[in-house]
């Protein structure tokens, strides 16, 4: 039996906090204004730091004095999580200003910036996607077979409305959301499934046990991933009233009053932390001006938040988090360079890098290195399960894909589009553990003659006008649907690819669209002939698997195969051929073993099959990104990953960022 536990650094601090909780606001810590007095630097904080009243935000202390809020010791759990600070103990107060130009990026504020709160979180260091650390849970016991995981929750932890957070909330999330027949399509339960849904049991208020039919070798990593956000975000005491299994009295009336079409829509709306200010949360900040009411989304501190700094001061330091929706990314770049955005995790394109760095002193900011988890600037996916049967036959021809890859002058794209940053690269893991030179570099040589040889071997000869003719007797033309509001470089790169492929007789039609339309057409319906996206999962092939084999509908090179892997009975599902089926078997074996060495061996075998299959065409390794941090914002690390799996910047503990002019 394996036990993972957190360090209890709180027992000696709790008594001191209890003694000072009723002190006046004048004794409380700094407010973000130098005149109000700053919290001591970490190296200067002595044993009497808390006794001086440094325990909670001044406005909360005032609410306690006025009888509007319970004392701090009644709001904190028995064992608050102690969070290390990057540089020094912070001060209370201020507003963290951000901006987003895409609704999708605005919506993921919950999991990236204000609500990265899982049973176990990724560590700040991450270390290639294997290391997790206790968070909502203080420890976990795992049986030797890897089929049973028993989590101990923080006793005394509360939702933002003061109600207890208990094991029943986890059970509700699993049984009544992730595996509810009506909600499952929205829930994405992939990391919670191993041979079927788990049996989840509230052993007592503070202990929850997951039991799987077969071993789940990646369960702790799965609960740290973005897809399990809701596992700790659904307060049962509040949401039961909107669920058909619990409300037989007036649910129909509530649906009618809401103007929505079903109880499912109502439940999803009421459980949305970006849109519902009444939803209790365990996050550091809670929405007060929701998405859809003006251009700004506003979050304010949660008085029941359950983490403290090393001196026992309740986090977060920052009072308010404001995100502004703007029309285009250029506005974000200009605002960041003017020092108007306190921490913006990704600013500008490779062309802007030098300018952003040179302007730092004048703009009163510094830059943060964003190391990409992405392994490719632009992955070109020819959809091998596209509804067009003729295109499907063409795209499933490996020689055709190889020929198009050799036709691409990657170095020119790197020089022109990415300003010399990066190197030619296919879809391949970049982590040292899984890097495969042959896989990463195969078919990246720019050679028009070789490209034509492969295309000839594919059976598609040129006509007198230099056009390759498909099996239907018509010139081969490929339409690429892409989200032109996601990445400014894709249009430039695709226009170059359009010319390269024209030279070898293949027509490419560019069809730019909004991200929301792209999601509907490509990710939800699989109607595309071709599409592009940045190649994710370079550092975490265990978790971002759809780049390496068709593991979900997000495998844009064969979404119907991904549907089949998740559910063979899905009406969109199609059984894949031998190669991808073997990859699916290997990944199932990875999930069924808790032996890390065996998992690595199996993943390497899976990637060898990827080399043979060559599903997608990569362009180049991505350059490092730049984040911009104003000089009034502190405790933001100089380096962090830019990733979906490690939901940047959440694992850096944004709660310990602070503002001081």
From TrEMBL:
Coiled coil: none annotated. It comes from Phytoactinopolyspora halophila. It comes from the Bacteria. PANTHER family: OLIGOPEPTIDE ABC TRANSPORTER, PERIPLASMIC OLIGOPEPTIDE-BINDING PROTEIN (PTHR30290:SF62), PERIPLASMIC BINDING COMPONENT OF ABC TRANSPORTER (PTHR30290). This is ABC transporter substrate-binding protein. GO terms for molecular function: peptide transmembrane transporter activity. The lineage of its organism: Bacteria, Bacillati, Actinomycetota, Actinomycetes, Jiangellales. InterPro entries: SBP_5, SBP_5_dom. Residues 1-26 form the signal peptide. Residues 132-541 form the Solute-binding protein family domain. Gene3D superfamilies: Dipeptide-binding Protein, Domain 1, Dipeptide-binding Protein, Domain 3. GO terms for biological process: peptide transport. Keywords: Signal.
């Amino acid at each position: 039996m394996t036990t993972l536990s957190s360090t209890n650094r709180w027992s000696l601090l709790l008594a001191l906090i209890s003694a000072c909780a009723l002190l006046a606001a004048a004794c409380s810590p700094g407010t973000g204004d130098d005149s109000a007095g700053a919290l001591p630097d970490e190296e200067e904080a002595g044993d009497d730091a808390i006794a001086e009243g440094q325990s909670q935000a001044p406005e909360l202390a005032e609410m306690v004095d006025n009888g509007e809020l319970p004392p701090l010791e009644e709001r904190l759990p028995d064992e608050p999580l102690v969070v290390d600070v990057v540089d020094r103990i912070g001060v209370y107060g201020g507003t963290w200003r951000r901006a987003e130009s895409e609704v999708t990026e605005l919506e993921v504020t919950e999991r990236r910036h204000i609500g990265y709160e899982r049973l176990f979180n990724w560590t700040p260091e991450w270390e290639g996607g294997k290391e997790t650390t206790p968070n909502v849970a203080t420890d976990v016991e795992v049986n030797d077979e890897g089929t049973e995981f028993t989590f101990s929750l923080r006793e005394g932890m509360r939702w933002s409305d003061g109600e207890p957070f208990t094991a029943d909330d986890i059970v509700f999330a699993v049984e009544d959301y992730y595996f509810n027949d009506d909600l499952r399509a929205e829930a994405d339960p992939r990391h919670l499934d191993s041979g079927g849904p788990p049996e989840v049991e509230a052993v007592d208020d503070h202990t929850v046990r997951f039991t799987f039919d077969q071993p789940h070798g990646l369960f702790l990593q799965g609960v740290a991933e973005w897809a399990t956000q809701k596992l700790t975000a659904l307060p049962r005491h509040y949401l039961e009233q909107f669920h058909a299994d619990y409300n037989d009295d007036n649910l129909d009336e509530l649906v009618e009053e809401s103007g929505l079409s079903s109880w499912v829509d109502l439940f999803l709306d009421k459980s949305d932390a970006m849109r519902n200010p009444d939803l209790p949360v365990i996050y550091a900040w809670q929405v007060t001006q929701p998405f859809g009411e003006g251009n700004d989304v506003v979050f304010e501190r949660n008085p029941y938040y359950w983490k403290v700094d090393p001196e026992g001061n309740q986090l977060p330091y920052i009072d308010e988090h404001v995100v502004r929706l703007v029309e285009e990314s250029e506005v974000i770049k200009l605002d960041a360079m003017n020092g108007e955005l306190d921490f913006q995790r990704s600013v500008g394109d490779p062309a802007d890098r030098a300018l952003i760095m040179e302007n730092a002193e004048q703009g009163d900011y510094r830059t943060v290195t964003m190391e990409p988890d992405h392994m490719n600037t632009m992955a070109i996916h020819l959809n091998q399960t596209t509804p067009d049967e003729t295109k499907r036959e063409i795209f499933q021809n490996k020689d055709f894909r190889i020929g198009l890859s050799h036709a691409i002058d990657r170095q020119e794209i790197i020089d022109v589009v990415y300003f010399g940053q990066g190197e030619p690269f296919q879809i391949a893991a970049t982590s040292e553990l899984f890097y495969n030179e042959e896989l990463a570099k195969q078919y990246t040589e720019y050679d028009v003659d070789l490209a034509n040889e492969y295309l000839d071997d594919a059976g598609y000869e040129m006509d007198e006008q230099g056009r390759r003719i498909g099996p239907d007797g018509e010139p081969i033309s490929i339409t690429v649907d892409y989200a032109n509001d996601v990445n400014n470089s894709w249009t430039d790169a695709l226009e170059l690819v359009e010319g390269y492929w024209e030279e070898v007789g293949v027509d490419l039609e560019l069809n730019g669209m909004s991200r929301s339309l792209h999601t509907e057409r490509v990710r939800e319906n699989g109607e595309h002939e071709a599409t592009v996206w940045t190649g994710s999962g370079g550092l975490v092939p265990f978790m971002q698997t759809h780049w390496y084999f068709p593991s979900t509908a997000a495998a844009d090179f064969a979404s119907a195969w991904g549907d089949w892997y998740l559910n063979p009975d899905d009406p969109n599902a199609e059984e894949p051929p031998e190669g991808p089926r073997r990859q699916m078997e290997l990944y199932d074996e990875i999930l069924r073993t808790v032996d890390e060495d065996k998992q690595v061996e199996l993943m390497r075998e899976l990637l060898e099959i990827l080399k043979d299959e060559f599903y997608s065409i990569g362009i180049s390794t991505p350059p490092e990104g730049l984040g911009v941090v104003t000089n009034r914002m502190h405790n933001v690390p100089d380096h962090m990953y830019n990733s979906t799996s490690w939901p940047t910047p959440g694992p850096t503990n944004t709660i310990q960022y602070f503002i001081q002019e």
